Amino acid sequence: MTTPLDTILASVFADITRETVLDTRLLTVDGAALYEVLKRLKTYPDLDFSLLLDITAVDYLTYPKRAAARFVVVYTLRNWKKNYLVQVRVPVADPDTGLPSVADLWGSALWAEREVFDQYGITFTGHPDLRRILNHHQFKGHPLRKDYDIHAGQVCTEPDSLEPEIRARLKVNGVDDSTMSDINTEIMFLNIGPSHPATHGAIRIFAALDGETIMANVNEIGYLHRGFEKTAEHRTYNQIVPLTDRLNYCSALMNNIAYVKAIESWLGLAITERAVFMRVILSEFFRIQDHLVCLAANLVDMGGLTNYWYLYNEKEASYDLISRLTGARLTSSFTRIGGMAHDFYEGWQDDLARQLVDIEKGVNDSLKLVARNRIVHDRTQNVCVLSPETALSYGFTGPNLRASGVGFDLRKDSPHYFYESFDFNVPVGTTGDVYDRMMVRFEEIFESMRIIRQAVKMIPEGELFAADHRYVLPEKSKVYNSIEGAANHFKLIFEGVRVPEGAWYDSFEAANGELGFYFVSDGSGTPYKLKVRPPCFYAMGGFHEMVEGEMIADAIINLGSINIIGGELDR
Amino acid sequence: MALGLEAGLGDSVLTTKLDTLINWGRQYSLWPMVFGTACCAIEFMSAAASQHDISRFGAEVVRFSPRQADLLLVCGTISYKQAPILKRIYEQMPQPKWVVSMGACAGSGGMYDNYCTVQGIDSIIPVDCYISGCPPRPEAVLDALMNIQEQVRSDSVLRERHQDFKGILDTP
């Protein structure tokens, strides 16, 4: 089917190879034309790809079919207004010469290109600060290259100083020695983290201060880099589900759902209606959990410890329900390709309804403390303002982007799982300050409750798994009583679900924003490559834009308000 | 760790009594320093919250400055990038100090047997108690705390602990 996007792409890029993969338009260009193509995608008014979602690379060294070049870099872009998704593939002739950097077009490219450089060793010429990001500065080699041994750990003996980086950033902000002698003071360098109560995990914030005002800020991440992507290349598709738990561990089940949804989309596997409703109910329930933790921690940073008890107690009580359902409190591993691990237990509706009432009470109690509280207003309003342009440029998605006034929500803009049939609103902020980010999350809790209550009324009885036994385990009676069933079971467990060859991207509105998965399959039961598009990573990439010029104490609450989760940030 | 006074007294009756007195005090006023990096830190938050209430064991004064703490709780995966920081934090803690390794990752690398994850923090710092689980339940944290209390109670205040420990980051 030819869509308006196809027509525009055909007229703008007449001489470029175009394909359609799921809902993505795929352009294949060469390195020389890359910058021009990406620039046109961003600036051409009908295209307006304002979000650069992700950049990654594929190493085709051990791929069964011969590829044109060993390395291919893939750019994923989105026009959020019209729900256009485009990927640009560029074969890299020589990784040392590399590709031109697009950091002047999108801020998100700054960190995305650093990650590709770190993991694959592909250079981006013109990048202002191309160095490692996830691995430590003493690391040799590039771990996601296929010829790098997964077990080859390298010891790091001392942390990076970050001094050249902060000096460079000061220069960018126009602070040099002469300015400093004018104001008759000295810059103080302050290091927060990686082990610090305010960093909510392992992040290092390095700031240059004039008094208490931040003049320049650089951040270092990668302290929780656990090699998700390399490990995934050594697991079968269903074995990766437990790994996804540990991405955003505050809403583990949403990651499970996002991950299997991406595979099911590629397989064209339609799951049963009951499974769809289960996924909607559970993902909204986990969205609430995620926001509860974020708000509880954020308010503790401001000194509002009472809020922590009100909000966190409800999370704790929700764990009882979650562990009754999944057997685990935090790491649920509750989805399988084609369905869910188990059905709901008997009496779940009552438990859930009661829990929602309790959460509502906890949230309202907390809101009573903050919503009309002058101290909270003074502390959060017009603090660390993020403009919509900056937010889009740095690839912010989810509640953080909506707080800046951009009403982009994949549940509305790219509906899946019957989201179009639920009655709910997408809360949008006006200023993009800390207050908006908090309040958007508070409101989203109430909207998620509305969705859950509607879905609970609508959920049909029936099967939990799709009946396609190429991908879904056969029933136990068949496994034990027939040779076909036993063989089917054996092959699915040992070889994994065989996923047809190809490369595709699929995404999901997770609690923190657009959680995307980019797969390359060689037709076997193990992904050839799996890249996560983590919403946190890009939010943290734009952190310095929010805090420079603000007070150091505001940086702390700002970090809490954008909800950085280490597992997802560093993978 | 000799307090100075009892060092001169040796293994006398008085010192034994001192052991009992000091250990009794230490046992019920452990000040944890939470080195929370990952999922396990969320479960530690649960252990500290009201339902599980770590203050029943006298260990609710969570210090984020290692200089004020005597119990290091390592909650989460330690990567090679993180390792020198963990070691420095440990070194900043005054003696006597105890270390709990919480969860599969801290204990053994857990499910991350790969290029970036330290395969057990006991290759960097000495560990006194391991908690299994991925992540462990809050009850397991409390169990480990009681185990540490038992170790504190039965130890002599004169003994220097983990003196001959050598990790991969220690200079040979």
Main features:
heterodimer; A: 571 residues; alpha+beta; Cytochrome-c3 Hydrogenase, chain B; five-stranded mixed sheet; three-stranded antiparallel sheet; 15 strands; 43% helix; B: 172 residues; alpha/beta; four-stranded parallel sheet; 4 strands
Kindly summarize this structure in a few lines.
The complex is a heterodimer of chains A (571) and B (172). Chain A is α+β, with helices and mostly antiparallel strands and 571 residues long.
What does this structure look like?
The complex is a heterodimer of chains A (571) and B (172). In chain A, strand 14 (513-521) and strand 15 form a beta hairpin. Chain A is an alpha+beta fold. Chain A has helices at residues 4-12, 31-43, 108-120, 163-172, 177-182, 228-232, 241-245, 252-267, 273-301, 305-326, 348-370, 374-380, 388-393, 398-403, 410-413, 434-458, 476-481, 483-494, 535-541, 543-547, 552-561, 566-570; strands at residues 17-21, 24-28, 51-59, 71-79, 84-92, 99-100, 124-125, 188-192, 204-210, 213-220, 335-336, 339-340, 502-510, 513-521, 529-533. Chain A is built from 22 helices and 15 strands. A five-stranded mixed beta sheet of chain A has the order 1-2-5-4-3. Chain A folds into three domains: 4-125, NADH:ubiquinone oxidoreductase Nqo5 subunit (Beta Polymerase, domain 2); 160-226 and 536-564, Enolase-like, domain 1 (2-Layer Sandwich), CATH 3.30.390; 252-466, Orthogonal Bundle (Cytochrome-c3 Hydrogenase, chain B). In chain A, helix 9 runs antiparallel to helix 21. In chain B, helix 1 packs antiparallel against helix 5 (138-154) and helix 2 packs across helix 5 (138-154). Chain B has helices spanning 13-27, 39-48, 83-92, 103-108, 138-154; strands at 32-36, 71-75, 98-102, 129-131. Chain B is built from five helices and four strands. In chain B, helix 3 links the parallel strand 2 and strand 3 (98-102). Chain B is of the alpha/beta class and 172 residues long.
